[in-house]
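Researcher: I'd like a candidate sequence for this fold, 211 residues long. If you have to choose between options at a position, lean toward the conservative one.
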């Protein structure tokens, strides 16, 4: 099987079986999605969805969060991983959004990455989810699944994975493919014990077909 055939088979299956994939983080505005994604680093979406309703109510706009103290924010997020650092990230990110971007989130990867707590993965999540741009956010699931099923070939870094996927996935499907790979890695192609017999794309999987 060629790489092109593998990509076409996998993408076709997802298009047919998961036509409208969505982030599992709950949010109501782009600003609140940003907060949720920053908080989700090394933490489960389930945990983040528990703490964010009260956080969102307390800080509906960047200007509200920009004048908050780190200690105040910590009380809302103390049950997530690394709450001290993340509380500082949220407050400082809000201040930069207000002071440098006029209170509006920038739809630009370099500007987004100026925000504390926002790396390339988080910036790409925002670009793809909020603005439907052809941005591929590579988290641990995307990195692992891409290598395992053969969309990448022993990729060594998330950036290498991102470049390979973007080069091989049609531009109009990149934002969806980000969700497809995350959800597949979260529920089917899991890290310790992939559920190959329940996998709809196993006939295209490089690892499965080598068995």
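Model: Candidate sequence:
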């Amino acid at each position: 099987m060629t790489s092109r055939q593998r990509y076409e088979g996998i993408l076709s299956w997802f298009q047919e079986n998961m036509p409208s994939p969505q982030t599992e983080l709950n949010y109501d505005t782009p600003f609140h999605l940003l907060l949720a994604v920053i908080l989700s680093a090394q933490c489960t979406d389930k945990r983040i969805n528990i703490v964010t309703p009260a956080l969102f109510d307390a800080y509906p706009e960047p200007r509200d969060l920009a004048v908050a103290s780190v200690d105040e924010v910590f009380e809302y997020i103390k049950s997530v991983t690394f709450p001290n650092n993340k509380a500082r990230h949220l407050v400082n990110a809000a201040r930069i959004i207000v002071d440098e971007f006029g209170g509006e989130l920038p739809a630009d990867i370099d500007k987004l990455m100026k925000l504390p707590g926002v790396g390339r993965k988080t910036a790409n999540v925002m670009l793809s989810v909020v603005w439907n741009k052809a941005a591929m956010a590579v988290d641990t699931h995307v990195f692992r699944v891409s290598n395992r099923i053969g969309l990448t070939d022993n990729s060594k870094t998330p950036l290498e994975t991102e470049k390979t996927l973007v080069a091989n996935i049609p531009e109009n499907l990149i934002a969806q493919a980000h969700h497809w790979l995350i959800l597949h890695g979260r529920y089917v192609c899991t890290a310790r014990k992939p559920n190959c017999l329940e996998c709809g794309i196993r006939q295209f999987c490089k690892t499965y077909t080598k068995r």
